[in-house]
Target: NADP-dependent oxidoreductase
Amino acid sequence: MKAAVYDKPGPPSVLRYADVPDPVCGPEDVLIAVEAISIEGGDLINRRSVPQRSSWIVGYAAAGTVAAIGENVRDRAVGQRVTAFNMDGSHAELWAVPASRTWPIPQGLDTMRAAATPIGFGTARHCITTRGGLASGETVLIQGAAGGVGLAAVQVARQVGATVIAVASGHEREARLTALGAAHVIDRLRHDVVDHVLRLTDGKGADLVIDPVGSTLQTSLAALATEGRLVFVGNAGGGGLDVDLWSPMQNNQTLHGVFMGSLFERPVVHRTVDDLLEAAAQGRIEVVIDRVFPLREASKAHDYAETARPLGRVMMTP
Model:
């Protein structure tokens, strides 16, 4: 099969399009003929990490059609459309993943949007409801709101009944985020985020902050209300995650770290993704796709995802 592989950590240029052996479908696995690949923030981070072996295939998320099932798999069938999450291997024509990390694609949802739903919306829902405990009438600040998790978080928070303050940059992003449910959009390149949040909340600060960026954590804490909650997930901004914890302690604030990799097989999280896929199929949530690349141009796709400030997910097709 063809895949995007790399042999050493580095910039997008380390990716190359190559022939590699087909993956083996284990007894608990399904083999997916990949049709759509979602480039996730973790993919970009992992590409900068030492690969586990030569010709390593990066990639968390993809969707397609089941081509084979393992001998112990009972709830999936050859020919079924599924979307999947795993820690590596999605940047390829074929992908073997545990059946427990797949979800059937409901009728009415295309494969492209299905590939981008579990991580973006699953993460947003977990951060906002399970960890963040957001309630109707509260105010939530969403950092990196133009990214996949951010766009999902805006919609989930609005459906909860919260007032959404989104951080992004540019008029196009402001209009898009407003249409998706943001009550206020702060252009981080033109305005001080903390000052704006305090003004919009009459000096109180946000009840909840969702931060998928990482490098903005200190700003997030400064914009957080006394006894507020900060949920930080991922590190899209790169760099360290060091923060001064003296102020959160003094203000009785709560910090929650989220890493979804170990959570998707939990029954309640797995069922949440099923619900989100159905919501996407029915048009109750919008999965925003910025641009689609062919897999053979994976290096260009990764570069675009890192440097072009995309509005939504960057996708690939084999």
Remarks:
- The domain at 2-119+264-316 is CATH 3.90.180.10 (Quinone Oxidoreductase; Chain A, domain 1).
- The first strand starts at residue 2 and ends at 6.
- The chain has nine helices and 16 strands.
- The two ends are 10 Å apart (CA to CA).
